[in-house]
Design goal:
There is one protein chain. The protein is mainly β and about 160 residues long. It has one domain: Lipocalin, CATH 2.40.128. The strands form two sheets. It has an eight-stranded antiparallel β-sheet, with no helix packed on it.
Amino acid sequence: MKHSVMIGLSLVLSACANPDAWLAAEPGTTQVGGSPANTTNAFDGTYRGIAIQNNSRGGNTLAPGGGTGTVKCQNYAEPPTLTVTNGLAQFDALGVRFAGYVTPQGHLKMHTGYGAAVAGQINSVPIDEDFDGNFDAQTRILHAQVLGVCAYNASWQKTG
């Protein structure tokens, strides 16, 4: 299987014959977004992917700028697991690592070094664990936009 070299994943975008293949990506070269001087460990933990929506302009098939041919913007079932350790958020997809520091306000910008980027916000969301109408706890949800050749809206929920 050949991957086209389009890492615009707004959850990494590439034309891949198997849309689930990106889940087993090996890490690649990383360019970290944000600043280690402006971060916090308040958002540290594991975030599982809960939703991803393909918002690529012109449908799922795009003509790359300056080139010929087309790129198929794949639909994915869920984003890969994201981890935040000492304020540094990371996830791997299609052979590259997205990485960036979370600000104390929960803002996050992640880069790959290949042009694809993620921008989002982590918020605390109250939850009613026993469905009695009273909020029993809070969870953290990251809502982000992934931009590159293709565009996606994605969400992650903190699990640990």
